[in-house]
Specification:
Layout lengths: L8 H24 L6 H4 L18 H33 L1 H28 L7
Keywords: Cell membrane, Membrane, NAD, Quinone, Translocase, Transmembrane, Transmembrane helix, Transport
GO molecular function, one term: NADH dehydrogenase (ubiquinone) activity
Main location: membrane
Amino acid sequence: MNYQPSDYLPVLVQLGAALAFIIGTMIATHWLGPKRHSKLKDEVFECGIESVGDARTPISVKYFLVAILFVLFDVEIIFMYPWAVNFMGWVKSSSEVAINMFLEMIVFMGLLLAGFIYVIKKGVLTWEK
């Protein structure tokens, strides 16, 4: 199929309209919004709790490692659902493709398990030392 530059015109128009709306809204709120400043208004407000202390207190790296590992393994699990749906369809129609898909999932799970074992051996999930 041969695309012409004019085929992309609707996409460019929509992109331009979206950018114009965003920029126009930001400018309008800046010009039309109230400009009253006071000590109480400019004070930091966080969920109804008064701010106390420094916001830059150190947080354990373990917390971030667990969060990143959760996201990593969670995304890997997301890949398994479409595989399972397609696998059930292939099992009913072709056994050769189903066997290849199953072996690929075994390799995938093996790599995932190897990563998980590595994380456990490194002690990333151990909170107390």
